[in-house]
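step=encode ok
step=design start
structure_in=
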């Protein structure tokens, strides 16, 4: 089991590393060339700055027993399709039960934006409590994956 992270805009890198180290799990952080990352623990893979380049590389590296951290519903859907587990930065575990609705809501939001409207509200500032929720969700997902793997 590895943890693969869509790391370009990921606000929970420190929490991922803390949990991964506790479980001695390898972490692969994927970024594009407009970012820089050196954390001393994870393998960092840098890809060209092109639309979806990080997403495509992440999915190509993914194995069924891996965990993906991404806020991108499309990446999560592809990860689930490959038999992997997926989690977002807020601790939401993506599943076959919720991914369809999430993708549909993303589609509706895109339609609203294309027609000149505003889809959704502005996100609130991230808190320490948000980080704890994420860390607990990642811990639980690792334990669940180990138990069923």
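sequence_out=
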């Amino acid at each position: 089991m590895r943890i693969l992270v869509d790391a370009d805009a990921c606000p929970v890198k420190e929490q991922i590393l803390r949990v991964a180290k506790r479980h001695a799990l390898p972490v692969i952080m994927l970024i594009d060339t407009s970012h820089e990352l050196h954390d001393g623990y994870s393998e960092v893979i840098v890809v060209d700055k092109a639309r979806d380049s990080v997403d495509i590389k992440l999915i190509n590296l993914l194995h069924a027993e891996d965990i993906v951290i991404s806020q991108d519903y499309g990446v999560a859907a592809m990860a689930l399709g490959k038999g992997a587990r997926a989690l977002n930065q807020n601790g939401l575990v993506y599943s076959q039960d919720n991914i369809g609705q999430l993708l549909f809501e993303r589609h509706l939001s895109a339609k609203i934006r294309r027609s000149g409207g505003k889809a959704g509200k502005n996100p609130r500032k991230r808190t320490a409590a948000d980080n704890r929720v994420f860390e607990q969700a990642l811990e639980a997902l690792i334990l669940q994956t180990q138990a069923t793997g």
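step=design ok
step=annotate ok -> The CA atoms of residues 5 and 69 lie 5 Å apart.
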